[in-house]
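User: Show me a protein chain along with its predicted structure.
Assistant: Here is one chain, sequence first, then C-alpha cells.
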Amino acid sequence: MKFSVFLRCILFIVGLILFLDGFILILQNKIHLGTILPLIIGLFFIFYTVFYQKIQKILQQHKKIKKIWQFGWICFNLWLISLFIFFSYLQLNTQSKQKIPQVDAIIVLGSGIIQGQPSPTLALRLDAAAEVAQQYPKAWIIVSGGLDYGETKTEAEAMATYLQEKYHISAHRILKEDQSTSTELNLKNSQNVLKAHQLGLNSKIAIITSDFHTLRASAIAQKQGYQDIVTVSSNTPIETRYNAWLREYFAYISGWLLQEY
C-alpha cells in the first residue's frame, strides 16, 4: 500500500508538470499537439491519482470496463516506448557542428514569428544561417515563410530584417519566399526563387532548420528532387524543446501518411 501511495504521488507530480508545461505554452499562443497532448495527459494523471480509490472500485465492479482500462494502459505504454525510440533516433541523428561545404544558396525554413519578430526557435535558425552566410559570402540566402495567423508581416520579411539588423547582411543577398505555410511548401516554393537566380535542384544547397526537424526536412527535399543538399541544424530552446520534439513525432507520421517523403 505504501508503495502504491508513493507511485501515485510521483504520478501526480508528473501530471502537474505536464499540465503546467502545456498550459503555460498554450497561453503564449503555442497551440499544437506538442502542447495540447502534455496538458491532456497531465490532467488525466492528476484525475487518476486524486480519484484512484473510486476508479479502482468501479473497475472491480465492472469487468468489461476493467479490460478496456487495462488495454488502454497497454496502448499508452506502447506509445511511450515508440516516443522514446523516436526521441532517441532524433538525438542520435541530428547533425552536430561541422565544417559546411561550399554552397550556392542557403534556404532558411520558417518557424513562426511573434508580434513581427522571429520566435526564439526561428532566431536560432537565422543565427545558424548567418554563420554559414559569413563563410560563403557569394551564396544567396532564401528566407522562407508566409503570413502567420494574427500577424501583419510575413515570416520572410521578419527573417530578412533580422539578418540585416543583427548581422548586417546585404538586402541584395536575401531572397524572400513569402507564400509558404509548411515545410513542404517552404522547399517547393523556394525552387522558383532558385530558378529565378539561375540555380536548380542540382545546385549545392544548405537547408537551415532546427535540430529535431533536419531529418524530415531532408527527406522532403530529396522527395522533391533536391540533389545536392546539406542540412544545418540549430539548437531548440530548452523551454520548448521536448514540446517541439513531441510535435515532430506526429508531423513525421503525418508526413509519411501524406507521402511527403
